[in-house]
Sequence to fold (230 residues):
Amino acid sequence: GAGVSQSPSNKVTEKGKDVELRCDPISGHTALYWYRQSLGQGLEFLIYFQGNSAPDKSGLPSDRFSAERTGGSVSTLTIQRTQQEDSAVYLCASSSDRFTGELFFGEGSRLTVL
Amino acid sequence: GNSVTQMEGPVTLSEEAFLTINCTYTATGYPSLFWYVQYPGEGLQLLLKATKADDKGSNKGFEATYRKETTSFHLEKGSVQVSDSAVYFCALSPLYSGGGADGLTFGKGTHLIIQP
Fold:
C-alpha cells in the first residue's frame, strides 16, 4: 500500500488476555519501529527492526511484550497477559534509511484493557 | 541519555497570531532534530528537520533553527491558521551521538488549538 497500515485500529480486551497488533510497512522500507503513545507521556520507543532482526529491544517495558518481523515486511507486536497500564495507542513507523530519522507512521492501534 | 523537552500545552491562539513552541534537547554528539505533527485522527508526519548546527528547517510556513549553543529547536510560524490545529512533537535522532537506542527520541507533544 501507499502508507503504513496498522490493524486493528481499535482493540478492547479484558485484563489477562493476550493481544496481537499488526503493522504493514511501506513496501521496500527496511527499518521498522514500534512506539507507544500514552496520554500525557508522549511517544515511548519500544523496539526497532532492521530487516527481520531487532538489534534494539531496550524499550520493551516487560517480558510480556514481544515483537517479530517476517520476510522483512509485516511485523507483529504481542502483549501477553495484558494489564490496564498497557492501555495506549501503539504506533508503527517505517523508514527506508535508519539514519535519516524520517519515519513514516501508521495511524496506530488503540488498545483498551478493561 | 538523550531527551527532549517541549512546552506543555494546550496552546490556544487566535487565527493569524504568531506561534512559538519551545523545544530543548539533551544529547551527546551531534543529533539531527525534527518536528513532527499529528493532525486529528491521523498518524504522525514529518513537518521539518535540521541536521547540523545553524541549519533552518522550513515547511508550510513553519520554521525552526538548530541552535547548538542553546541546545534548542524552537518551532515558529508568523501567522497561524485554524488548519494548523494539531499536536506537535519535537524529536532528535542520535545518528552521530555515538550510541543510544535506535529510533527517534520524542518530546511529550504540544497540543495547539487555533481559534477563528
Remarks:
- The mean pLDDT of chain A is 90.
